[in-house]
């Protein structure tokens, strides 16, 4: 019988802390659809200030935040957005920008570090003289940290270059900043500077910083006014959301400072996993809080078998493919949990080797 659970599937699995629950219970609330929830006002004002933008809007999820942002910038059906071929918006958001917004995605190859080559981005911008034949490019999207690249950070210099490119061509820049605070901490760059070049940013509250629900999008006052209308259209207008925003305010106050420790735990785990024969971990894994583990061909087994072996011992990980596992660290994973997880990985590899020898 499993007596210890270490949940490394994602940083979305955190539970509300006692401080969050207390804040939720005592939150001052009103009807946010009518524009009167004071705790929502506090959170939105705090996020706008933190991100260096004029205004902000609470939304139920990061997927909705990205969808709203793309639709505000691409306000004519048949518009086109340039984005990475391995980014969250393109792969994991159910094709919403196309199915709901009539926006055409134009993917550009993501490099291993989550960037796209600047010249490839520029080459993907449609020539306005071909508007009779082609979609009209309106927007460029970046993702920071880049989840499918193992939580890699986009530098401020790179983001600025993409922002300059967008401006030269009359385009907008949106950043899917689901884990932007992780990037800020890892790079040692204030978060408002990291997104200075962006016209809009979506920030997840329920990933790295551990709030139970929601995201916030930030941008100009005009952008947020349009976003508020779209939120209502998409069914994201909720009533007494101050209960949720109260927990997010606690997360902002208490958990950003814990992110560096999450990164240290990820590096410790990655370093230990690299020592195990048959597993391959990228040399830059642990830059933030995500680690991908590839099972080498010589193991003659797959990710599914190792995942089940770990699960039987209380270690929960995400299976990405037949040969890849993902682990994500968060503030409710202790150093002892990491040690235990590493020992279970060691046992899993040893167990598989022994089975192969039988």
UniProtKB/TrEMBL annotation:
Group of enzyme by EC: lyase
Residue ranges of every copy of the Aromatic amino acid beta-eliminating lyase/threonine aldolase domain listed in the record: 7-294
Protein origin, superkingdom: Eukaryota
Keywords from the named record: Lyase, Pyridoxal phosphate
Cofactor dependence: pyridoxal 5'-phosphate
GO cellular component: cytosol
EC number(s) from the headed UniProt entry: 4.1.2.48
Record-level GO BP terms: glycine biosynthetic process; L-threonine catabolic process
One Pfam family recorded for the sequence: Beta_elim_lyase
Catalytic activity as recorded in UniProt: L-threonine = acetaldehyde + glycine; L-allo-threonine = acetaldehyde + glycine
Biochemical pathway: Amino-acid degradation; L-threonine degradation via aldolase pathway; acetaldehyde and glycine from L-threonine: step 1/1
Residue positions, PTM N6-(pyridoxal phosphate)lysine: 207
NCBIfam families reported for this sequence: GntG_guanitoxin, PRK10534.1
Protein family according to the UniProt entry: Belongs to the threonine aldolase family.
Function: Threonine aldolase involved in threonine degradation to glycine. May play a role in the removal of L-allo-threonine.
Protein name in UniProt: low-specificity L-threonine aldolase
Species assigned in the record: Phaseolus angularis (Azuki bean)
